[in-house]
Every structure is written in C-alpha cells, then in structure tokens.
From TrEMBL:
UniProt cross-references to PANTHER family, sorted A to Z: AMINO-ACID METABOLITE EFFLUX PUMP-RELATED, INNER MEMBRANE TRANSPORTER
Top-level taxon of origin: Bacteria
Membrane topology reported for the UniProt record: Multi-pass membrane protein
Name the UniProt record assigns to this protein: DMT family transporter
SUPFAM superfamilies attached to this UniProt entry: Multidrug resistance efflux transporter EmrE
Biological classification of the source: Bacteria, Pseudomonadati, Pseudomonadota, Gammaproteobacteria, Lysobacterales
Amino acid sequence: MKKSDIAALLLLGAIWGASFLFMRMGANEFGGMALAGMRAIGAAICSIPLLASRERLAELKANWLAVSVIGLANSALPFVLFSYAAQSLPAGLSAIFDAIAPLLVAASGWLWLGEKLDAPRTSGLIIGLAGVVWLIGGTMGFGHAGTSTGWAMAACVGANVCYTFGAHYSHRRMRSISPLTVAIGSQVAAAVMLLPFTVWLWPARMPGTQAWVAMFGLAAACTTLAYVLFYGLLARIGSARAMAVLYLIPVFGVLWGALFLSEAITLAMAGGCVVILLGIALTTGMLRPGSSTPTEPLEQPENA
C-alpha cells in the first residue's frame, strides 16, 4: 500500500474508534435515543450533497425499500443500542464489543445460510467467541458489575446482531447498487426513522457544549467522513486490505477512552481484545496458518 493509503487507514480506525468516546461524552446528557437520532440527522444533512447526481438519485429511488432496511439494520438500531450502552459502559469496552460483528457474520452464515467454514476459520470463530465470554466474565468481576452494565453489554451484542443481518442482506440484495449510494441513502433513511423518537424523547434540560461537540463529531466525522474514507479505500486497495480497519477500531477506542476519559485498561479488557482480534484474523481469512497470501475476507457490515 502507498503511504497515503496507510495514513488513511489509520485515520479511519482512529475516527471510528473515537465514535465510542463521543457517545460516552454525549449519551448521559442527550439520552441514548436523542443522541442516536441527532447523529443520524446530522449525518444525513452532511451526506445529502453527495447524492446530488442523477445516477445516485435514480439508484436510490429504484431501491428505496432495500436501502431503508439497511438504514434500520446498519445505522438506526445500532446507533440507539450503542448510545444506550454508552451511558453505562466505558468507551473502550464498547469499542471492543464492536469487534465481534465479523464473528457473528461467520457464525450466522454457517448456521443458517449453509456457508462453509474451513478449519482455520472455525478455530477463529471459537477463539473469538471465547474472547467475548472472557471479556464479559472478566469485566463483571472487575468492578463494573450491575444490572445496567449487563443490559448495556446486551445492547452492544444486539447492535452487532443488527450489523450481521445488514451484512447478509447487503450481500444478497445490494450488489448492483453503488456502495456509496447505499451508505448515504441509509443515513437519510435512519434519520427519517429516528426523527419522531428524537423529538419525543428530547431531554428536558438542554445538553451542554461538550455533549453538542460530541454529537457533531459523531455525525460529521465518525459517520459522514468515515464512510467517504472507507469507500475511497475500498476503491484503491480492495476489501481485503481495507478490512484491516476492524483491528484498529478497538485499539483506538481503548486508547481514546484512556487518554480523554481516564478510563482504566483492565486485564480483562486487554486480554479479551487480543483474543477477539486473533479470532477475527482467523475467521475473516486475514491470518492463514501456513499461507503467505491473505485471502479475501468474509463480507463485513458497515461500522459504528
């Protein structure tokens, strides 16, 4: 890869990792639903100029229902679930949970869609899921136990289930549509779906400056700019290399939480993160024992 592409990949990992920092900063003042809604609305407003072409508008008009389903599965529901979780979980821990999406994609494809997994990918799936169990068990024993924390972890898993459905749906229904059209259209659809709930559940007390800055960071940087960077990388370096960003998101999520929110990095978080990333490397085909060439990874969902 060119140095500029490596820099773009690192920047994308840093931006998507920062989404968990921003959610943590804004969720308590906005509330989970209002923050998710404002993120989608802000991203839609920033993205609309990118739709200003007849080709993209025609694609969107012809496939509005499918794009709306993607908007629900890949944006609206995950935004709400991760924003809810951010009220209880440290940013770094939420970022680590976000890394399990590729494992769920592989597991669901094998269980329900008849997709075959070879020995390395099966091993990776088992290792990755073991890392999730370690992470949950270890975290509950490191001072974060509580009912709200348990529900927050469930919300993170639920968000990744949504990404899993979105990945399979996109793979089967959206192959003929420009990925950028899907990304932009899905943000507009998510904004429309979340708007009434955002108005209904708007906080009684106006959020402070820090919460608004976090919301704008989520909408403009972590959603709109991130999608532009991601699809640019896909076009230049291909999906196999672009998917390396999956390994950067939890690392940057933990780093930003420690630097800006003084979050502790526990043994459970560090160990769980390493084990999950090893599982992802095997499951997606990026790490192939005995092979010097990486294989094409499994279809992955758009990230948080």
